[in-house]
């Protein structure tokens, strides 16, 4: 365990220092940042982005991209709340149905990317519009209210009166993702396909299957985020998840995953997502307009991608 921790720190030294400096800077300006309540709030708010970013890491390692996750958040939230509020489904059945919708959108992305020559950017851009349109059609453009305590506790509840429920889901997802990427053939195959598709093909790896699995997982994680967010807002919102893909991609790139595929780590993505979350929280505490936050995040992505390009050239 200590060896793994040492490797983690060494591999992510740069962004770890960046996170510490950012936290220190914000805490000097506003000491409330380091309060337990605020730190738990940061974790709760960051958790939904981490669901997306963890799966996005796998997709980008494959050399792909998924722009549809924000819209999948909206449609899964709307479907889940409609089933509960309008059709009287039990909460567990509606949640399963919502997750299935998210996974089906992801599987569709994966199938089209794997079986055609259409670039992932275009495929997921199209799905982004389809899913967002479906959310508006299903909800008639209006929020779908849910007054069920058992549903609302999914995103707003606490475990042991201290740990936000979404953070517990995050811990479970992180463990699953770590095992997949570091302890299974599937993880090794993802790196192989992203690093050199031709060599992977000659090695007998089923590239189509790997891509479909990765994109399906991305859709599933967007479904988890959609249900958690709709639970926190007590409603399914067709506008939910707007620009969520921006934060997810920013976290992945900040975490050191190469946009050209073949390299990246889940641990780096987690730190990248924490930087995005802390940055947003800090800007809110400082009273900075949300409009400026988009500009800051855009600049952060640009710098991170540029740093990745420079690193690749040196290698």
From TrEMBL:
Keyword Transmembrane belongs to the record: yes
Annotated TM spans: 12-29, 50-76, 82-105, 117-138, 158-180, 212-234, 291-310
Membrane topology listed for this record: Multi-pass membrane protein
Single GO cellular component term: plasma membrane
Compartments, as annotated in UniProt: Cell membrane
Keywords: Cell membrane, Membrane, Transmembrane, Transmembrane helix
Name of a matching Pfam family: BPD_transp_2
InterPro entries membership: ABC_transp_permease (IPR001851)
Keyword Transmembrane helix: yes
GO MF terms held by the record: transmembrane transporter activity
Superkingdom of the source species: Bacteria
Protein's recorded name: Ribose ABC transporter permease
Organism: Gracilibacillus salitolerans
Gene responsible for this protein: rbsC
């Amino acid at each position: 365990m200590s060896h793994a921790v040492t490797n983690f720190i060494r591999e992510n030294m740069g962004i770890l220092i960046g996170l510490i400096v950012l936290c220190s800077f914000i805490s000097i300006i506003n000491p409330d940042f380091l309060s337990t309540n605020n730190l738990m709030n940061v974790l709760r708010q960051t958790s939904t982005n981490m669901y997306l970013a963890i799966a996005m890491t796998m997709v980008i390692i494959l050399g792909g991209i998924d722009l549809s996750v924000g819209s999948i958040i909206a449609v899964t939230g709307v479907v889940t709340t409609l089933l509960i509020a309008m059709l009287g489904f039990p909460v567990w059945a509606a949640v399963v149905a919502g997750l299935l919708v998210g996974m089906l959108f992801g599987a569709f992305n994966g199938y089209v990317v794997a079986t055609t020559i259409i670039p992932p950017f275009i495929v997921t851009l199209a799905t982004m519009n389809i899913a967002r349109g479906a959310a508006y059609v299903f909800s008639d453009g209006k929020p779908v209210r849910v007054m069920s305590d058992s549903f609302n506790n999914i995103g707003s509840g606490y475990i042991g009166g201290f740990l936000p429920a979404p953070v517990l889901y995050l811990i479970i997802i992180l463990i699953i993702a770590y095992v997949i990427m570091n302890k299974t053939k599937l993880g090794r195959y993802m790196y192989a396909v992203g690093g050199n598709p031709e060599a992977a093909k000659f090695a007998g790896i089923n590239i189509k299957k790997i891509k479909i699995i990765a994109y399906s997982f991305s859709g599933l994680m967007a479904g988890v985020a959609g249900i958690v967010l709709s639970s926190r807002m007590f409603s399914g919102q067709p506008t939910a998840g707007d620009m969520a893909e921006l934060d997810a991609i920013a976290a992945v790139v900040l975490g050191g995953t190469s946009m050209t595929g073949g390299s990246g780590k889940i641990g780096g993505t987690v730190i990248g997502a924490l930087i995005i979350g802390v940055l947003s929280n800090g800007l809110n505490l400082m009273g900075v307009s949300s409009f400026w936050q988009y500009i800051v995040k855009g600049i952060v992505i640009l710098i991170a991608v540029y740093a990745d390009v420079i690193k690749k050239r040196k290698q």
